[in-house]
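Propose amino acids for all 381 sites.
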C-alpha cells in the first residue's frame, strides 16, 4: 500500500513539474489562451458568435424559403408550432407541423390562422429547394430544413407581405454582422494610426489631433450619424449604401481607440526597446508598427471585440430610422422597421424576433470582450 501511494505521489509530482515547466516556457499568447479557456461565459459567447457568423455565411443553406418570395395566403402568419405527438397520441421522433388556414375577421379585418389537424407534414433535413451558389462558388439546391409541397414552414412567421421572417433574418445577419466587423476594422486602423502618431510624436501634432478628437466626441453621435447617412445620394444602389454606411460608422468610431493608443504610446515611447530601435536607425513608422503596437496587442484585441457591438447597434438604429440600409437589402434594422407601431406589435409580436438576434449578438461580444480582458490582464490569475 505504501509503495502504491509513493508511486501515485511521484506521478502527481511529475505532472505538477511538467505543468510548471510548460507554464513558465509558454508564450504570452499561450498564457492568454489558457486563462481565456477558464472563462466559461466567454467561451460560450465565442460559440454563439461562431454560430451567428455561420448563419451569415451560409444564409441560403439555412433559409427555408426565398427571403424575397411573397406568400400572399400567409401574410402576417404566426410562427409554426412543432409537434411530436399527434391527435391520436402517437409520438413521432421527427417533429411535424400542421397546415395553416387563413380566415379574415370581418369585424376587425384581422387575419386569423387555424391549424388543419388533418394535414400533417413532417420536417425533412437536407432537402432540395431553390438553387443558389454556396459562398458564391458552389452551385447547389440543398437546404437544411424543409417540408413537402404544397405545405410551407415559417419558424418565425411572416411579415405583412407574406415573406418568411426566418429566411430574412438569416440573410439580414449577413449585412448586420459584416458591417459591424468591417466598420470596426476600418476604425481600428484609423485609431491605431492616428493615435500612434499622436502619442509617439507628441508636441504640436499631439495637440492638433487631440483637439480634433475632442471636437468629434463632443458632437452627439445619433444626430451626427443621421446627418452623415442622410447625405448619401438617394440613387445609390444597396451595395453603395452598404459601404457608405460602413464608412460613416468608421469615421466616428476611431476616436476612443485613438485616445487609448495615444496613452499607451506615451507610456512606452521612452522604453529601452524603443531607444534601441532608434539607435539602430529604424524609422519612426516602423517603430510604431513593429514594436509599439505589438507590445500591447492583447489590449487592442479586447478593444476590437468590444467595439463590434457598438457598430452593430449603430447600423440597426440607422436602418430602423430608415436612413441606413435600404430595401430590397435586408439587415436586422430593416426588419425591425415593420415593428415601429403598437398595432403591428399587438397583432404580430413575432416581428420583434430580429431584435432578439441583436440583443444576443451584443451580449455575446460584450462577454467575449470581458473574457479577453481578464485573460490579457497579466496581474490576474
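Proposal:
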Amino acid at each position: 500500500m505504501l509503495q502504491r501511494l509513493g508511486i501515485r505521489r511521484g506521478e502527481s509530482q511529475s505532472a505538477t513539474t511538467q505543468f510548471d515547466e510548460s507554464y513558465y516556457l509558454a508564450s504570452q499568447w499561450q498564457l492568454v489562451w489558457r486563462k481565456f479557456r477558464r472563462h466559461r461565459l466567454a467561451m460560450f459567447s465565442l460559440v454563439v458568435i461562431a454560430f451567428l457568423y455561420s448563419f451569415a455565411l451560409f444564409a441560403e443553406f439555412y433559409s427555408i424559403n426565398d427571403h424575397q418570395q411573397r406568400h400572399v395566403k400567409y401574410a402576417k402568419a404566426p410562427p409554426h408550432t412543432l409537434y411530436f405527438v399527434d391527435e391520436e397520441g402517437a409520438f413521432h421522433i421527427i417533429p411535424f407541423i400542421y397546415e395553416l388556414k387563413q380566415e379574415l375577421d370581418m369585424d376587425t379585418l384581422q387575419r386569423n390562422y387555424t391549424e388543419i389537424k388533418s394535414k400533417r407534414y413532417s420536417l425533412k433535413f437536407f432537402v432540395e429547394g431553390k438553387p443558389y451558389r454556396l459562398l458564391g462558388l458552389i452551385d447547389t439546391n440543398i437546404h437544411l430544413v424543409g417540408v413537402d409541397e404544397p405545405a410551407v414552414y415559417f419558424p418565425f412567421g411572416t411579415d405583412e407581405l407574406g415573406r418568411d421572417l426566418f429566411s430574412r433574418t438569416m440573410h439580414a445577419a449577413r449585412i448586420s454582422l459584416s458591417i459591424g466587423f468591417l466598420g470596426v476594422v476600418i476604425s481600428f486602423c484609423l485609431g491605431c494610426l492616428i493615435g500612434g502618431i499622436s502619442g509617439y510624436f507628441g508636441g504640436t501634432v499631439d495637440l492638433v489631433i487631440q483637439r480634433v478628437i475632442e471636437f468629434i466626441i463632443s458632437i452627439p453621435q445619433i444626430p451626427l450619424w443621421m446627418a452623415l447617412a442622410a447625405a448619401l445620394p438617394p440613387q445609390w444602389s444597396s451595395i453603395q449604401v452598404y459601404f457608405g454606411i460602413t464608412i460613416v460608422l468608421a469615421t466616428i468610431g476611431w476616436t476612443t481607440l485613438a485616445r487609448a493608443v495615444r496613452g499607451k504610446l506615451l507610456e512606452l515611447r521612452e522604453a529601452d526597446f524603443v531607444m534601441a530601435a532608434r539607435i539602430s536607425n529604424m524609422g519612426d513608422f516602423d517603430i510604431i508598427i513593429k514594436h509599439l503596437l505589438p507590445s500591447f496587442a492583447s489590449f487592442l484585441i479586447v478593444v476590437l471585440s468590444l467595439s463590434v457591438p457598438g457598430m452593430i447597434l449603430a447600423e440597426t438604429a440607422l436602418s430602423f430610422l430608415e436612413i441606413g440600409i435600404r430595401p430590397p437589402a435586408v439587415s436586422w434594422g430593416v426588419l425591425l422597421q415593420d415593428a415601429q407601431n403598437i398595432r403591428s406589435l399587438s397583432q404580430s409580436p413575432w416581428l420583434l424576433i430580429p431584435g432578439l438576434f441583436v440583443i444576443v449578438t451584443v451580449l455575446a461580444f460584450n462577454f467575449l470582450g470581458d473574457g479577453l480582458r481578464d485573460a490579457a490582464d497579466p496581474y490576474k490569475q
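The chain has 14 helices and five strands. Residues 220 and 319 are 18 Å apart (CA to CA).
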